[in-house]
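chain below, 399 aa
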Amino acid sequence: MSDEEPGLDGPSRPGFDGPPLAVSVDATAVPERPVGAGRYVVELVRALARRDDVRLTVWCRRDDAARWESPGLTVLPSAPPSRPARLVWEQAGLARALRTAGVAVHHGPHYTMPVLCPVPSVVTVHDLTLVEHPEWHERSKVVVFRRAIALARRRATAIVCPSAATATRLDATGGATGRVFVVPHGVDHDRFGPHEAWPGADAAALRSTGVRPPYLLFLGTLEPRKAVPVLVDAFDRLAGLHPDLALVLAGGPGWGSDEVERAVAAAVHRSRIVRTGYVAETAVPALLRRAAAVCYPAIEEGFGLPALEAAACGTPLVTTAGSVMAEMVGDAAVLAEAGSASSVAAALTAVLAGGPDGERRRTAGLAAAAERTWAASAAGHVEAYRWAASRSHPRAGGT
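prediction:
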């Protein structure tokens, strides 16, 4: 059973007078260019570092310390750079180091944890697609992370899920021994909002990407569950009625992106499909803000952060009916049937029509996004950490 979402939003826990809780976070899997779960770890660490009721230790790769260094943090660049070596290090080196690190709880924010963790552990399970839809993922990842999820179910003191949908799927596919906390991601409202930082800032940012309005935008890794070929087909269906409109696919190729390449090659209007590759974080808000519409047609997600960030920017949004994205943005989006190009095309057509419905959805999106902050997300994680640290564990570190 999962808990209700926490509503705490502040620098520390109201009414807590004890010493800071000593927490360690494993950031060793965050790539140089973080997206998705990597962005979650970066933002969570930043938000935790601002709290006065947490003493934070961050484990990172030996070549990655500079990114994490910040006042109030202890950064331990201990892990080897390669993924296979990191996984071995987590089970041997990290498990051993945690015995003397002086932490009360350890957080594995990307499915994994040491089998023999010497302190209470919290693990984030983002979604269950690795279990339920292995065909959407690279085989080596399926093998590693299915085992990791099974381990977290059995041995994690607490599990964090970013949405009620993920917590429900976790329960439906076998449940967990530890307590499950539903803690949504947040939005960096200093970056994602309806107004540019200064006149001309967005235009300058767009020039750096090679993108020119008007355009429809997809933002994210190009991988099977994102249903990008469906979006390409949908764009092809409506492009003839909007001769100036482009489709921008912003994101790096993931496993299985060959299907996207084939869809673009087969599109009648392929000359109006722009591929940016990875977009620098500094340009992402402008790309979202200036889009005629953002389309995030993913079949299934743990959270779908780009959809919420689009809503925070006041940008018209099309996303998938029955998904966690629809759950998060409420009435802000026009919803399309999962995997249906005709449904996505109809939803985009409705969005492009604008009018009173468009303004109503924009207002709803701004309101929905305003409720989500990384400070509130960090507070929810601290609830999970405190609960886990309070459980009996023979080798729990001090605070």
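The chain has two domains: 21-186+374-389, 201-370. The first strand starts at residue 21 and ends at 26.
thats it, cya
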